[in-house]
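Dear Dr. V.,

Thank you for agreeing to look over these. As mentioned in my earlier message, I'm a first-year student in the group and I'm still getting used to reading structure tokens, so any feedback on how I've presented them would be very welcome. I ran two proteins. I've put each sequence directly above its structure. The first is here:
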Amino acid sequence: MSAEPTSPGPVRPPARRLVLASRSPARLGLLRQAGLGPEVIVSGVDEDAVSAPTPADLARVLAEAKAEAVAARPEAAGALGVGCDSVLELDGRAHGKPADAGEAVVRWKAMRGRSGVLHTGHCVIDTGASAAGAGGRASATASTTVRFGHPTDEEIAAYVASGEPLHVAGAFTLDGRSAPFVEGIDGNAGNVIGLSLPLLRELLGAVGVAITDLWV
């Protein structure tokens, strides 16, 4: 005979507010699945105006720019701001969201049967009073190798027609219609979707915050 289910205890409020500097529903979903309840404030950063020497650096610099923009907003005062940005590295070049359907088709024909590296930059900024001292900010990039399959020209056309690749870095995602076209990855899956939870935990720890204190 199984034991009677017990009622869950009272939900404690998180120790700090968490603000996600991104409109990405995938990143928001990952944070919620991990027990976090972030607010969303879109940074408004012009990504095309940002440059860096390598794709990995570009992902980090973009994440820092987004976190900084949101941390400066009055509505983020006292919160922990999290900025993220992803780029796909292929042939040494950084690829973000394709500009249009034509570019998405060209991108997929270049990617199929090959491997690329998805870089996601992460930046945490503590906008609270303690952030005035050392340790109020931390940033890093997580990188995951992605092995693409061999979708046919017809499959690529159908995928691009769905509109999905125009809204995601690298013109693909693991949690959408392109998942059947990805043979495998080497690294963190969440990082490819948009946010590495293990790296976020490390960065929060670097600014003195335990991720368990942010559970809702």
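The second protein is here, in the same arrangement:
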Amino acid sequence: MGGYILRRILLIFPTIIGILTVTFIIVQFTPGGPVENIIAQLQGTGGNALGNLAGGGDSGATSEITAFADSAAAGKYRGTQYRGAQGLDPEFIARLEQQFGFDKPPLQRFGLMLWNYLRFDFGDSYFKGRPVLTLIIEALPVSISLGLWQLLLSYAISIPLGICKAVKDGSKFDIWTSALVIIGYAIPGFLFGIMLMVFFAGGSFFNWFPLGHLVSENFDDLSFFGKIGDYLWHIILPVTAMVISSFATATLLTKNCFLEEIRKQYVTTARAKGVSERGILYKHIFRNAMLVVIAGFPAAFIASFFTGSLLIEMLYSLNGMGLLSYEAVLSRDYPVVFGTIYIFSLIGLIVALLSDLTYCLVDPRIDFDRRDV
């Protein structure tokens, strides 16, 4: 097992380099960019690049770009040509490219990025004027809070429920719970989130729960149990919306896996030997059926921590990793885009390794050292 773990750890680095390489190549051929966004904003046809730039910190690069943009908007840099940026002086365009680092060849930029990322130096955000690592560290608590609670609660509900449905297959309990599971699966989580907001967060009915942030402004002044209560008070609505829409898939997967194992010959043999139903279920069926459920854990982990919480973060005004990466893609804030992809990939690969190790805990017969990675 030690050799397998070492090989998997060593494979993490080339895998991440491959992901970053593919992403970097795609970015080179993607229309638009931070320079084009600023130009479009100056011409009145773009988004909020300058708005983000103006409100984004005190870094020297950001301040200088803002000064150039203000000068261009005032008419100081007026020329005749630049790709679709007619009316802007090439000198202004060249200074923008220099500030964003696009004056260097792509291979040089990519090599410098890899060297910096090995040291967890992601640079500064183009438009927020702050270190990318700082932005990620600030967003992680939100994503971890939402994702961890969603993962724990959804699995805590779906695995026992799926086992009960498999044992009582075809009963009234199975039929009614299947109807509830299908409803939960069919309705997107953000619709549940909207419904909870309307009913319980100052909508048309009650104003019982707050929106925005994970804790109250006076969190530091509260007692230990007061902090716990305040934290749970803030996350109960978004976590509930995420859990309702996520446990359905795991429930049906668990039920189907256990049903498949229950119908196998070794279960019939165990019954013939006089083994109790409880012993058959938890000593024989459980470890075989749970392998398929565990196989889907890495994807569920990444979805719950990042991609799955994007709309919930937007609904409840929570600045997590999903929202951070989404806004970075829209504004072409490439340091944030690559930084979040790097973190997503690293965490995903580590979770995949932990998932393989969990196989061995569930079923000691599995030995990864006997096969190639």
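From my reading of the second output: DSSP finds 16 helices and no strands in the chain. Residues 54-61, 72-86 have pLDDT under 50 and may be disordered. Does that match how you would interpret it?

Kind regards,
E.
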